[in-house]
Design goal:
Protein name: Tetratricopeptide repeat protein
Pfam families: TPR_12
Shape: globular
Strand content: 5-15%
CATH class of one domain: Alpha Beta
Distance between the termini: 92 Å
Largest sheet: 5 strands, parallel
CATH superfamily of one domain: P-loop containing nucleotide triphosphate hydrolases
Number of strands: 8
CATH topology of one domain: Rossmann fold
Structural class: mainly alpha
Helix content: 55-70%
Radius of gyration: 29 Å
């Protein structure tokens, strides 16, 4: 298995915990079509390039291949070892064999953390036939996500291989029993955690550093003109024979053009720069040393080389990425002018190419094929630890500004947006390590705005997790009574309400509202925002009088503070159309509330979401007043607009459809009403779960319509 690079080619031995370049062209032809289009990302390994030569892994690959040849499924193989040993490279090679020669469907999931594991496994369920409604229910926590995934894996028509890559935190598998066996397929896990207690019933295989001769051959594969096999063996010893360190060293040597370095020079520089002492500690794969310390000096050595070669922007970009989370970061973020705070925007493309060429970052297609850049967690941790203290504040400010530019200033309602979900780990990751109060406050405000955006796309579970986690983290720096901490708690409470967790939502919103009144006054915008959310919960808990009194105070406060034409004022006034009884709606004192749709259109425009919501609530009010034809026409128009803008499963679209079922039945079109209501129940059971309060209420209404017990509301007077 000798490998040699010729002309402009480069051969890389290993991949996984490190980035692998198979071939590099110094001249990219303009307009050339990219070859990245292919199957869904779970059907191919989420690594940018494949290894050409895999050294010293024949024994373990032989055992893995035998397992899929002789048995249909039911096995879990755990590949464990220190970071950078090439566990993912072994899994990749096995994946190729299983899909190309063993007739298996290949499925690949990044299990680095709970969020990526959950998202990846739900994508696996979609690949195996799960419907969008089932996936929506699982995403929002109304259906056990792990059960959904494994039910579809167990019923798969084709045998499969599932790789759970980078599973370095085994505790995330216990929540929902994500790791299981199935007669229809084989599971391979790559992890640094080797204790058998984490992987009961699995076959464990240790992946260690390379033997001396194979490690030397890796360096010769990558930099064939740099020295002899024995010289390579000496440098490999200094690098601890760790595939990641070998790959970086060989890549560095291969790139020296004006003054080529030999292996001897590289070895002397390792001694001069004093990284060898740390790197040599990795020679024994059974040692307890942190692999971050073993390879950190090699990475720092590469960063120093960028400076000496006039490429400081590559170092700056990597340090910027190290301020964020080791998760896919949409490439579009790097194209904002705010990046000038870390490096010139005009040099970002060059800097990124340098990082990719030196195996310090990789390109991945994340959810919905959003193109992203991602750095390995160990690498980013090492870079963050060695970033000069005087640069940290500027880098944090720049990273926060980039994330801020990617989140809408005023989040609007809309369909699910995968880019928003991708931003959440980075915002929360920064909040975890930032201790500067000003930056923490800016990040918390951003996290709350991001949670609002997620909320308004119907992704209530992500909205709650983002707001709740952000509040918890920022409270350590800013304190529990900080205005922004309370605002994040309020947003978390609103999401809990939409998730059907009324008791928790009431407790949280009531506590936040009380604190805001004490600290900021009853007419403060934040206090009024929490009051609006709290009245929604009270109304759905059956406490109408309390809800109505609170809503009236909210309307009055918003009119005084924000003005009568403000969107939030009009939104609160719109809620009156739902809470008022028929008799109250008919009272002359409330006549103005029935003109609300026209008021919204005048102040906000006919297409504004608040105007659309006011038309929806107005249709409800006219239905209560017994004006069934008017109500039916009004809600039909609203329902059509909701479906066009958000899709038929969007929560408010189902609410409108439920009202349409009522108006149709009230007009004597009972069969049409039953059909509409049956569809609402089906979609809510799939999207919200059978026990969500909205689902139960819809099911009760359907039963009444079918049994003939339902009666339309009596007009007042």
């Amino acid at each position: 298995m000798d490998g040699r690079a010729e002309d402009e080619g480069r051969v890389y031995q290993s991949q996984g915990d490190q980035h692998i370049s198979e071939h590099h062209h110094h001249h990219h032809h303009a307009g050339a079509a990219e070859d990245s289009a292919g199957p869904d990302s779970v059907r191919r390994p989420l690594v940018s390039r494949a290894p050409v030569i895999l050294r010293d892994r024949a024994e373990v690959l032989g055992r893995l291949r035998e397992s899929v040849e002789s048995r249909p499924g039911g096995e879990v193989h755990v590949l464990h070892g220190m970071g950078g040993c090439g566990k993912t490279a072994v899994a990749w090679a096995f994946f190729q064999y299983a899909t190309a020669e063993a007739g298996r469907v290949g499925l690949w999931v990044n299990a680095a953390n709970r969020a990526s594991l959950r998202a990846g496994m739900l994508a696996v369920a979609a690949d195996r036939g799960a419907g969008e409604g089932e996936l929506l229910a699982a995403r929002n926590g109304f259906r056990p996500a792990a059960d959904l995934v494994w039910d579809h894996l167990d019923r798969s028509a084709e045998p499969w291989l599932l790789v759970l890559d980078n599973a370095d935190d085994p505790t995330i598998f216990r929540d929902g029993q994500w790791l299981r066996t199935s007669p229809r397929g084989t599971v391979v896990v790559t992890t640094r955690r080797s204790a058998a207690r984490w992987w009961p019933g699995a076959e464990l295989q240790h992946i260690g550093v390379l033997p001396r001769e194979d490690a030397a051959r890796v360096l010769c594969d990558l930099a064939p003109e740099s020295g002899t096999l024995e010289q390579a063996a000496e440098v490999a010893d200094r690098l601890g024979r760790l595939p990641l360190a070998l790959t970086l060293a060989g890549g560095f040597l291969a790139h020296q053009i004006i003054v080529p370095w030999t292996l001897d020079v590289y070895g002397r520089r390792l001694d001069e720069e004093s990284p060898v002492e740390l790197i040599d500690q990795g020679a024994d794969p059974l040692a307890d040393e942190d692999p971050r310390h073993l390879v950190g000096q090699t990475w720092q050595f590469a960063l120093d080389s960028f400076e000496s070669r006039g490429l400081p922007e590559a170092t700056a970009l990597l340090r910027l990425l190290a301020r964020l989370a080791p998760q896919p970061l949409p490439l579009s973020l790097l194209n904002h002018r705010e990046i000038d705070g870390a490096l010139p925007r005009a040099r970002v493309e060059t800097a990124l190419r340098v990082l990719l060429d030196h195996s310090l970052a990789e390109l991945v297609d994340a959810e919905a094929d959003v193109r992203c850049v991602q750095g390995h967690a160990v690498l980013l941790d090492s870079v963050a630890a060695t970033t000069p203290p005087e640069r940290v504040s500027a880098l944090d400010t720049t990273a926060a500004a980039l994330l801020d530019a990617a989140v809408p200033d005023i989040p609007d309602a809309g369909p699910y947006n995968p880019r928003l979900r991708l931003l959440a780990p980075h915002v929360l990751g920064m909040l975890r390590h930032v201790r500067d109060e000003a930056i923490a406050a800016d990040l918390l405000a951003l996290a709350t705005r991001l949670a609002t955006a997620l909320y308004r796309t119907g992704d209530y579970l992500s909205a709650w997790e983002t707001a709740q986690t952000a509040g918890d983290q920022a409270e350590l720096t800013l304190g529990a009574d900080h205005r922004l901490v309370l605002a994040a708690r309020s947003r978390a409470g609103r999401a809990l309400f939409r998730l059907g967790r009324y008791a928790e939502a009431h407790e949280l919103l009531d506590r936040v509202h009380t604190s805001q009144k004490r600290l900021f006054g009853p007419d403060d915008p934040d206090t009024l925002d929490s009051a609006h959310g709290l009245q929604l919960v009270l109304g759905n808990l059956g406490r109408r009088e309390e809800a109505l009194a609170l809503l009236r105070r909210t309307v009055a406060g918003r009119e005084a503070t924000l003005g009568p034409g403000h969107a939030l004022t009009l939104r609160s006034r719109s809620s009156l159309l739902v809470l008022l009884s028929a008799a109250e709606l008919a009272a002359p004192a409330n006549a103005a509330v029935l003109t609300l749709p026209q008021d919204c259109a005048r102040h906000l425009g006919p297409d504004h979401i608040v105007t659309l919501g006011a038309r929806h609530n107005h249709a409800w009010a006219t239905y209560l007043l017994g004006r069934y034809e008017t109500a039916d026409a009004g809600i039909a128009s609203v329902l059509e607009e909701y479906r066009r803008r958000f899709g038929p499963d969007y929560p408010v679209a189902l609410s409108a459809q439920q009202l349409r079922a009522r108006t149709q039945a009230a007009l004597g079109r009972l069969e049409a009403g039953v059909d509409l209501m049956a569809d609402v129940v089906r979609r809510r059971e799939v999207g919200l779960g059978t026990d969500h309060p909205f689902t139960r209420a819809s099911r009760d209404l359907l039963d009444e319509l079918r049994s003939g017990r339902w009666r339309p509301p009596e007009p007042p007077g």
